[in-house]
Write a structure and sequence with these properties.
The structure is a single chain. Helix 3 links the parallel strand 4 and strand 5 (about 95). Helix 6 packs parallel to helix 7 (about 215-225), helix 10 packs parallel to helix 11 and helix 11 runs parallel beside helix 12 (about 355-375). The protein has about 450 residues and is α/β, with parallel strands linked by helices. The chain is built from twelve helices and 20 strands. Helices cover about 30% and strands about 20% of the residues. The protein has a five-stranded parallel sheet, sandwiched between helices. A five-stranded mixed beta barrel has the order 16-17-18-20-19. Bound molecules: iron/sulfur cluster. The site of iron/sulfur cluster has 9 residues, from helix 5.
Length: about 450
C-alpha cells in the first residue's frame, strides 16, 4: 500500500476564500493526498490568505511565517497573493504564490514540490497525456466556445460562449509538452485573439509569476519555453484581426515566434461581411496585412474564405478576387457556402445555387493557385529550417515554418539518410509548385 503524502492547510479570509480552500482540498483528496492536522507531520503547507484590510494582511503574513518556521515548504494562495510581490518581499522562501480562485495553479505547485501519489490506473498515462499527433508536434487548446455569432456558424450554439482556460494551466501543459520532446506547439481555439476576454484578462500565475490571461502575454510566456537548445516553433491559429494582434508581430520579426498567422478573413465585401456578422472590412484587413509585412516581411499568412454566401452577387465575388490578388496571401482555403442546419445565414434572401457556389470556389482557387505558385517560387535557392515529419526509402517529408501540419504544403527531401521524424534540418530549396517545395539537405 502506498503512503499518502501529507499536506497541511491554513485557510484564512472570507467565504469566497473558504470556497477556494474547499476546491483545493477536494482536489488534493481526489488525487490521493492526505491532510495533516499539524505543521510538523505535513510534508508541505498551503496557506490561503486574505488581503482585504491591513489587519488581515498582517494575520496572513504571520501565518505564512509560522508555517515556514515550523515546516519550511509553503505554497501561498488567495487575495494577498494578488497584491504585487508583498508575500515574496516578506517571505522570500515561499515555494509559490498564486492569487485567489487559482486551484489549478495551486495544484501545479503542489505537484512540482510534492509529486502526486502513484495511481495504478492513471500512471500508465504519460505526464503529457495521451496525444494523437506525432511525438514532435502538439496542439495546445487555450479556450473553448466563442462570443461571436457569425451567421454561417453554429459553434456557439454547440459549445457555448468563450470560456478561456487559466493561463497557469495552459503554460503548465505547454511546459510538459516541451519537456516530453515536442518541438512545435500549435495554439488553437475558436478565437485565439479573444483569449481571456470572458474572465476580464484575469491575472493568473505561472511558476509563481503573475501573468495576465491575454493572448500577447500568453505568447510572450510561451516564447520563453523556446529559449533552450534547438528551439521551439510556436504557431498561432484562428487569430482574428483585432488591433492587439499587432503586438505579437514584432516577436515574429525577432525570431522568437514563428512568423505564421492563420487569420480567417472569410470575405472582402463589406456588405457580405456584415451579413456574415464578421468584424472588420476588406479594406481594413488589407491595411493590417501591409502593416504586418512591413514589420515582419517573412510572415506567412494563411486564411479561409467562403464563396457563394447567400446574396453574394457576381460583383461582390469579384471584389473578393480583387482582395485576393491584392493581399497575395501565402496559404488559402476556400469553401463553397454550405447551409449547415441551424445557421442563421440559411434564411438570408438570394441563396446562391449549389453549382454557382462550386463554380465560384473553383475560380477563387484558380486565382490563389497562381499567387501561391509565384510566392513559393521565390523560395527556390533559399535555405530553410525544416522539421521532419516522416522518413522512408525515397527520402523525408518535412515542413518549413510556413507549413502547418495537415493543412499547408510540405518540403520533400531526396535521399535524406540519417534523418528521423522530429529532427530539425536545413534544406536548400531546388524546386517548387503551387503547394510544395523540394530540396536537399545542407550540412
Ligand atoms: S465562425 Fe468562428 S468566430 Fe464566428 S461564430 Fe463560429 S466559431 Fe465564432
Amino acid at each position: 500500500m502506498t503512503i499518502a503524502p501529507k499536506i497541511g492547510f491554513v485557510s484564512l479570509g472570507c467565504p469566497k476564500a473558504l470556497v477556494d480552500s474547499e476546491r483545493i482540498l477536494s482536489q488534493l483528496r481526489a488525487e490521493g493526498y492526505a491532510v495533516s492536522p499539524s505543521y510538523e507531520a505535513a510534508e508541505l503547507v498551503v496557506v490561503n490568505t486574505c488581503g482585504f484590510i491591513d489587519s488581515a494582511v498582517e494575520e496572513s503574513l504571520e501565518a505564512i511565517g509560522e508555517a515556514l518556521a515550523k515546516n519550511g515548504k509553503v505554497i501561498v494562495t488567495g487575495c494577498l497573493g494578488a497584491k504585487g510581490d508583498l508575500v515574496r518581499k516578506a517571505h522570500p522562501r515561499v515555494l509559490a504564490v498564486t492569487g485567489p480562485h487559482a486551484a489549478d495553479e495551486v495544484m501545479q505547485a503542489v505537484h512540482a514540490h510534492l509529486p502526486r501519489p502513484h495511481d495504478p490506473y492513471t500512471d500508465l498515462v504519460p505526464p503529457q497525456g495521451v496525444r494523437l499527433t506525432p511525438a514532435h508536434y502538439a496542439y495546445l487548446k487555450i479556450s473553448e466556445g466563442c462570443n461571436h455569432r457569425c451567421t454561417f456558424c453554429i459553434i456557439p450554439s454547440l459549445r457555448g460562449d468563450l470560456s478561456s482556460r487559466s493561463i497557469g494551466e495552459v503554460m503548465q501543459e505547454a511546459e510538459t509538452l516541451v519537456k516530453a520532446g515536442v518541438k512545435e506547439i500549435l495554439v488553437i481555439s475558436q478565437d485565439t485573439s479573444a483569449y481571456g476576454v470572458d474572465i476580464r484578462y484575469r491575472t493568473g500565475f505561472w511558476q509563481g509569476r503573475p501573468l495576465k490571461t491575454r493572448m500577447t502575454e500568453l505568447v510572450r510566456a510561451l516564447c520563453e519555453l523556446g529559449e533552450g537548445e534547438g528551439g521551439l516553433w510556436l504557431r498561432l491559429h484562428y487569430v482574428y484581426p483585432y488591433a492587439h494582434v499587432d503586438e505579437v508581430i514584432p516577436l515574429m520579426a525577432e525570431g522568437r515566434l514563428l512568423p505564421y498567422l492563420d487569420v480567417p478573413f472569410q470575405h472582402a465585401s463589406p456588405r457580405i461581411l456584415k451579413l456574415m456578422k464578421r468584424p472588420a472590412s476588406g479594406e481594413v484587413n488589407l491595411e493590417r496585412i501591409r502593416a504586418w509585412r512591413a514589420i515582419c516581411p517573412e510572415i506567412t499568412i494563411r486564411s479561409t474564405f467562403i464563396a457563394g454566401f447567400p446574396g453574394e452577387t457576381e460583383a461582390e465575388f469579384r471584389q473578393l478576387l480583387d482582395f485576393l490578388e491584392e493581399a497575395e496571401l501565402d496559404r488559402v482555403g476556400c469553401f463553397a457556402y454550405s447551409p449547415v442546419e441551424g445557421a442563421k445565414a440559411n434564411a438570408l434572401p438570394g441563396p446562391v445555387p449549389a453549382e454557382l457556389r462550386e463554380e465560384r470556389r473553383a475560380r477563387f482557387m484558380a486565382v490563389q493557385e497562381k499567387i501561391s505558385r509565384k510566392r513559393l517560387k521565390r523560395k527556390i535557392g533559399k535555405t530553410l529550417k525544416v522539421l521532419v515529419d516522416t522518413v522512408d526509402k525515397q527520402g523525408a517529408v518535412a515542413r518549413s515554418g510556413a507549413d502547418a501540419p495537415e493543412i499547408d504544403g510540405v518540403v520533400y527531401i531526396a535521399g535524406a539518410q540519417g534523418l528521423k521524424p522530429g529532427d530539425w534540418a536545413r534544406v536548400k530549396i531546388e524546386r517548387a509548385d503551387a503547394h510544395d517545395l523540394w530540396g536537399r539537405i545542407i550540412a
